[in-house]
Amino acid sequence: MWIADRGWRIVDRTGTGVLDTLASVGAVAGFGGRFFVDAVRPPYEVNEIVRHIYQFGSRSAPLIATSGVAIGVVLSMHTRATLQRFGAEALIPSGLAVALVRETGPLTAALLVAGRVGAGIGAEVGAMRVTEQIDALEANAVDAYKYLAVTRIIALMIAMPLLTVLMDFAGIFGGYVAEAVASGMPWPLYFERSFLYLGYSDFVPATIKTVVFGYLIAVVSTYLGFTTTRGTEGVGEASTRSVVLSSILIILSDVILVKIIFFFYPQVAG
Amino acid sequence: MTRLREDASARQARLREDASARQARLRADASAGQARLREDASAGQRETAVRLEHVTKSFGDRRVLDDVSFEIPKARAFCLLGRSGTGKSVTLRHIIGLVRPDRGRVLVEGRDITVLRPRELSTVRKRMGFLFQNAALFDSMTVGDNVAFPLRRHTDLPEAAIQERVRAKLADVGLEHEAEKMPADLSGGMRKRAGLARAMALDPSILLVDEPSAGLDPITSAEIDELLVQRKREGTTLVVVTHNIPSARVVGDELALLHDGHIVARGSVADLEASTDPLVQAFMRSEGGG
Q1: DSSP alpha helix (H) spans, B137-217
Q2: CA distance A128 to chain B (A)
Q3: B125 with A140: Cβ contact below 8 A
Q4: B136/A131 touch (CB, cutoff 8 Å), yes or no
Q5: What CA–CA distance (Å, rounded) separates B227 from B231?
Q6: pTM recorded for the entire structure
């Protein structure tokens, strides 16, 4: 009897949890879906979009550049250790560039932006919610979703590929630094070898997929900001959950996006 | 033991009778006030700016407004009184469409805003100003930009004219030298006044004001009251939520007392002062501000 009761309670709790999760997923999907309708309706809030692109870029660029250089150094050291065994050190620059541009750069840049910008959006919009600034926008006859969410989503969809390119170049530069120290390779040679095997199909799809990452980060963060409750504590929670949820979604969506890229560009799959 | 139980049940029965008699008296007072207003309106003395019809609203299990109805003629000041948490601010939010009622209608200048599309609702909102309880200034903008915000969004005025109007609105609330400051650098009372300047920026025909005196010193509070009275004279309809009875006496043409989700008393200052209801008396005798 006791076991049956306990078992029933576990089933009940699990069922409630699953239903709550599905409801949340539905709510986020609805929030993100509304973007495609509202983004094409005037007013277009161009000034706000430009302001956010600058803000997101200036917030993240130093972090992206520094991390890119560090990742380039580390990747170069690992690649050298492996390729040295086969006497193929000359392939270090191209191997590193392909790895960076195809996957490491876009994914790392997206995760860093989720931590830096996603947390910022969650906290900023959450604070606006709890201090009634979102209500004040509506009371001033301004569509808060368009003004706060659409502008940030567009801005991050534009900023994300730019930051990814920065990450790629910083990584290549970091690889050069490591290679210059290890083998004294000059910059022109390293640069030339980096782009030897790097084609359009390596760079363009991988960079464009970060538009989706930008969309996901901004949608999740603004949604959590818009739905913030419980004052300051809620703002902190919105900020943290923005990072966690965006990161999970980036990694999961990456699997699907890579599959799509392989479908349209079979040469990338080798 | 049996006698004690009988005493207790007799006492409970007496309390129930007292409570129901009081409720009946309050409802009778309120209906009398509402009947008088209906007569006014039917006599065509004034057009109606705002009308709530049987508005009911619950948050979770808690019913905040229960069948609330009232109407406010144009260019009149309606003060909504009541203890904290009785639904005064929720009523204001219904009027500007930030909250939709579970039941009932909210008519603003004849249009039922509960059924309007977002774009139509925006058009109605452009004719209204709202001062939030905590001012709700945009903290990423200066005070001047906060006041300029509705002007830049909804008018074609050149920037010089906008700046001129911002200066005038800030001067009205005594903040003409604070335009370049950020909201975080202002005191609570100054933020409130800046919020009022923003609410008045478009010269709205209906001004909703939530606790205008809260956090203000008596002199500034009196100045704000005077400003509201002046707006009313210029034709603005005022809906003021306040705890401040002296302020309500100055500003309000009509007062209503909200209690447990119902309007339990309604009328002019004299009507409410003459009320025999203990709750109304307690409110009208309180002189505490803010």
Answers
A1: 143-154, 159-172, 188-199
A2: 8
A3: yes
A4: yes
A5: 6
A6: 0.83
